[in-house]
Amino acid sequence: MASRLHQRDRQMPLLIVSENFTEYGYYIRAKAVDHCFKQFLMQTGGHPQRQILSLGAGFDSSYFRLKAGGLLKNVIMYEVDFPDVVSRKAALITNEKELAELVGSAGEIRPAESGIVCLSGTDYRLLGVDLSELEKLDEGLIGAGLNLTCPTLILSEVVLTYMDNARSSAVIQWASEHFASAVFVIYEQIRPADPFGQVMQKHFKQLNSTLHALVEYPDREAQKKRFLDLGWEESTCVDMNEFYFGFIPKEERKRLETLEPFDEFEEWHLKCSHYFILTAFKGELKICSMLNAPTGSLLTKSVPFSSKTISASPCEVDSKVSGLRRYGHRSCLIKSNVVITTGGFGEQAGQHGRLKDLQLSVKSGAIWEHGPVTVEDTEQLWDARIFHSMTPISDDQCVIVGGRLSPLNPSTNILCLKCRQKSDFDSCSVNVSVQEVCVDMKSLSPRWRHSATGMKYKDQSYLFIYGGCSPTDKVLNDWYFLNLEDFSRTEILVEGFVPEGRHSHSACLWNGAVVIAGGLGPEEMPLGSIYLLIPTTTGFTWQEVEASPSVIPRYSHTAHIVDDKLLLVGGVLIHSDTIPGVTVIDLKTGQCVDYQINTAHLEWPLMLHNHSSVLMEEEKQLFVIGGGGNCFSFGTHLNQHPVLLSLASVI
């Protein structure tokens, strides 16, 4: 039966959700709603009659999943949607023998006594009525047998937000006034004002589907208050990150992570932070505990921002130059005023894809000039990789390590880029040659989302490669020292407590020590820890930095050292509803201060993840290039231009 339903799904979205369905966004939505269904059915199991009312049900197949699983004993399920949708769904059900048998329908689509199109089965009622017509809705449901006194679950799954707020509030209040004992479950969007929220809103506006509730009810507290003000007695609400980590068992999360290659962590966490599931109760059902997560599993922490802000200003480029609109790339300063950017995923000639071109940004006075670089690569070594590392090792050379072409296809070679200026009179005239570094790759496991830091130990230069992920390991916790004279792997003693594995972290050099900050850990949870790899007479030792207040966990950020201060720029946060700014940690005292970024001068939402940044220390500025991601729901979103962040107020 399931295979035929999936075949049907190519024509209509009526399907039984498979346990192996791995589109993460739909998966977590289905899991959250299913959790509420099962909690309701379990906690009301002693009642002789129960009912579920699904508002705007569309082609949802929850009834068929629950019925096939034997979970609808003493339960009648009512589904409501527009008459044309109901007519199509009813026809689909009656024409499919196995569905009709589950419904217990005689195969007739008939008007109810009220004149509303209705399919009536043993424990299933399908009604066609506009939710804004509450009198007609009330009449139709009562005519179809709705019981206002028995325990009832009312579901609105991304439905009410498409109605204007007065009409949707009327539906919420109608439900609170009509049912003696009920729980209202709603799944919708929140956080419209931050960069991802703006991208989300733009997506729905392009579909002519305005999200009306977002402006008036922009966060979880506002949503909870809305229901309490409209007659519900108690309300609980979590975002989908909290649901995923608090309600999905660890074993199930591990199973999901093994089903298919996945490397879109940023957009996954951002989307989850912009959707919530809420339960509101009244009557005897207010003792239900559908969304009471285990102690300590809820994520949200407050961020006390400094009164000072960091201003962001656009760094305009020629309108014909789109090569800096990318993410997953790397940039580094190869001379005092020259920045080279390599790799990543972005826009070129109106198309999105992995980028093979190299871009040069040259500062001339107060002006930045941008353009592609002439690449001498006769052996076609450069392979358009993303999530690699690029580390300057001299004024005109940088080393590229790792990266990937796909989650199953890592870039395995190490490349050296050598930059040569063609003319002293043309600052943008630079040639770049690409050479492969001879390394015994058997001793180096392939990786991406790692860090590679240039450092010295006992007068010898090394490249310290740490962490990352690979096709076989979702998180790596190993490290290598590469001797930069011959790129041989060197064994150096490292002592102390070993940090947990991580990827998408940052790494900087401070007083001879490597500073590792943040990242995504083995449980796919952002980390807030900071570690120093400190040189000793016999090698190195790990030491954790104790910050106060503690650093909000993050990953996919960038980092820089100014004097004795560590600057963490942007990143993805799931422990806070705040927009990522710049966090400054004094590495000597541990004092931690968070600064918001003033983006009033930008005409687009600034996405500070998957970006690169270069410190211009004399100017007290950060030169931010690219950033954004490719969301499976809302498409590719990229920062339109490079941005300058003024650090004058914080350093």
What Rg is obtained from the alpha carbons, in whole angstroms? 28 Å
Proportion of residues in helical segments: 10-25%
pLDDT averaged residue by residue: 88
Q: First CA to last CA: what distance?
A: 65 Å
Structural class: alpha+beta
| Overall geometric form | elongated
Please give the largest β-sheet. Answer: 9 strands, mixed
- Low-pLDDT ranges: 1-22
**Strands across the major sheet, in which order?**
3-4-5-2-1-6-7-9-8
Provide a count of the helices.
13
According to DSSP, the number of beta strands is: 42
How much of the sequence lies in strands comes to 25-35%
Write the layout of secondary structure elements.
Elements lengths: L1 H8 L14 H20 L6 E6 L6 H7 L6 E7 L1 H12 L2 H7 L6 E2 L5 E4 L3 E5 L5 H10 L8 E6 L7 H14 L3 E8 L5 H12 L6 H4 L3 H10 L4 E6 H8 L2 H8 L7 H9 L1 E8 L22 E10 L11 E2 L2 E6 L2 E5 L2 E4 L2 E4 L4 E6 L2 E6 L1 E3 L12 E4 L4 E5 L2 E3 L2 E2 L3 E8 L8 E7 L14 E7 L2 E7 L12 E5 L4 E3 L2 E3 L10 E5 L2 E5 L12 E6 L3 E6 L13 E5 L2 E5 L12 E5 L5 E7 L13 E5 L4 E5 L2 E4 L3 E4 L4 E4 L5
Parallel strand pairs: 1-2, 1-6, 2-5, 6-7, 10-37, 18-24, 29-33
Antiparallel strand pairs: 3-4, 4-5, 7-9, 8-9, 10-42, 11-14, 12-13, 13-16, 14-15, 16-17, 19-20, 20-23, 21-22, 23-24, 25-26, 26-27, 27-28, 30-31, 31-32, 32-33, 34-35, 35-36, 36-37, 38-39, 39-42, 40-41
Helix pairs in contact: 2-11
Can I get a quick summary?
This protein is of the alpha+beta class and 651 residues long.
Description:
The protein is an alpha+beta fold. The protein has 13 helices and 42 strands. The chain has a nine-stranded mixed β-sheet with strand order 3-4-5-2-1-6-7-9-8, with helices on both faces. An eight-stranded mixed β-sheet has the order 34-35-36-37-10-42-39-38, with no helix packed on it. Strand 6, helix 7 (165-178) and strand 7 form a beta-alpha-beta unit. Helix 2 crosses helix 11 (240-247). It is elongated. Residues 1-22 have low confidence and may be disordered.
